[in-house]
Amino acid sequence: MQPYVLIVEDEDSLATLLEYNFEKEGYEVGIARDGEEALLLAAERTPDIILMDWMLPKLSGVEACRRLRRREETQTTPIIMLTARGDETDRITGLDYGADDYIVKPFSIPELFARTRALLRRAKPSLLQDVIRQGDIEIDTKAFRVKCGDTPIHLGPTEFRLLDYFIRNPGRVFSREQLLDAVWGRDVYVEARTVDVHVGRLRKALKKNGKTDPIRTVRSAGYAFEA
Asked: How far apart are CA 133 and CA 136, in angstroms?
């Protein structure tokens, strides 16, 4: 599963440059042009990491950062503040408002990637791993192989992506809409009930040989993966 980065930047040229480079590195990218839009997008789908410009229309980056930290879903989401303000006082303010790192413009893309990877390794190490294990289920994202104990499990492409997303977020409940955005993509129109079909197929494959069903249905809410 690709890490999802939310880029909050009102300068079109920089937003486009960052989007291009992050997608090239294998990230899934969301773009917000102001602080209020950033809050809306983060509420729709929790990012794995956020790049936040300081000076934004409608709502400043530091205020958006402060509000994100007050939400349970984004309380621990890594946030890198991007700004032309390089004074020590400004850096301290950004960190005090909840930013995890601070990069002064202009910056180099390789340095930004290095800092992004460092924060992701601490916050979500499984996102950067090729082989992930939860309970007796093992998924190899490079070889596209799944095992349950010593038994190989054969999955279709959609079921594989669905399991990959579940296994990286154990215990968390996802609505059908959240799973559609994360697994199918925001630009693809699919009926919400399609999620039920693919979850059913995934369950059937994982329950072979008498294994316990690791996917929990949460009434009126969605699904969760329990290792």
From this structure: 7
Helix axes 109-123, 12-24, angle to 10 degrees: 60
Name residue 191's amino acid.
E
Domains (range + CATH), the chain:
4-127 (3.40.50.2300), 130-225 (1.10.10.10)
Give all strands of the β-sheet with 137-140 in edge-to-edge order.
Answer: 131-134, 137-140, 145-148, 151-153
Q: What is the pLDDT of residues 108-144, one digit of tens each?
A: 888 899 899 889 888 887 776 778 888 888 888 878 8
**DSSP code, position 19:** H
**Token pair listed for 182:** 């994360």
5: its two tokens: 């980065």
pTM beyond 0.85: the answer is no
